[in-house]
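#dry-run=false #mode=assembly
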Amino acid sequence: MKFLIFAAKFHVLCNFSSGVLVKKNMKHLSDSEIIDSVLLGNANDYSLLIARYKNKAFSLLKRMLKNEMDAEEVLQDSFVKAYFGLKSFKKEAKFSTWFYRIVYNSAVTKLSSKRRKIEQEMLSVDDEENPLHLAMPEWEFNKEKHELLHAAIRELPENYSAVVTLFYLEDMTGEEIAEVMNTSVGNVKVVLYRSRLALKEIISKKDLKKELV
Amino acid sequence: MKHLPLNELNKYLDNELSREDVLTVEEHLEHCPECAAELKELQSVTAMLKNQSVDVVPDRFDSLVMSRIVKEIKSQKSYKRFLASIFTVFGLSFVGLVWMIVYQATRQVIESNTNSLILKWIQSGVGEAQQLVNALVASKHYHSFEASMMLFFVLTIYFIYEKFRTIRN
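#status=ok
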């Protein structure tokens, strides 16, 4: 019996020493604890933060940039930027708010560079067709319900879709969204109200009430 | 009947109205089918938004980000090493330059004060250093020291160019 207890203890000790238990519990760590670990030199632990935020941040970017490739590229840049900015991250704020601020600003930069490019192309080609309309998602009525909703959200202006995504998908408060977007809480609420109305109009205009509501 | 402003309906939807305002809105909704329909539509949009699904990034995403981070760390390290080597080389060049100036100045002082014992001692020391440099560059010419400094400078430039090329590759 004593031998069995000793063997069990030895097994647990081995697991601890090999870091198996430590790694198993890593998923339950808070953002702040993961950041501490990364700053101590465990760069691989950053993948836990990536896993935690990648999909929601990707949703935000896809809706703002209206392009999957651009969204992926900007998200990669944001994660790299956040990694090298971790030293300057003050833990008074939530990591999510800080990170989404990087994501939002990167998206805004990407959008303005895209707009500049389009303007230059318009000047050089002198085409009557507006390329901005070409960037809009195409409507396919055989799409799934969630795809139709995503397409409807993507039709909103980028700041509207950002507010809607952060509020409903990320469950952020008005204050947090205001911090991410560097604006006032009042402005965030106005944008939220307007985006609901705009979505309502898009749905009725595209006659999607049956499919969506 | 005057309809409710949309801001009021939105605030009602988000539970941001005071108790009194809630009662006023609810009383209005009972008697105004248009506002009630508007609220219903807004409620359905909100419900839809609450149940929206999350987009999923491609599988290779995590590894791509981590490999970019590792690459960036490596390039930052090599950039630091590059800067350190440049500072070392320029530091050594500076020391060499100071040495040359001191050497020239000392030589002039020695030439004008040949009677001083201390200066004679310095003269012998400098002479030995000069002999050493002459032996190193295998030349008995008086300007061998300057020539060695020039060689050192050329080697420095070549070293910096090689380092830069390695980092760029």
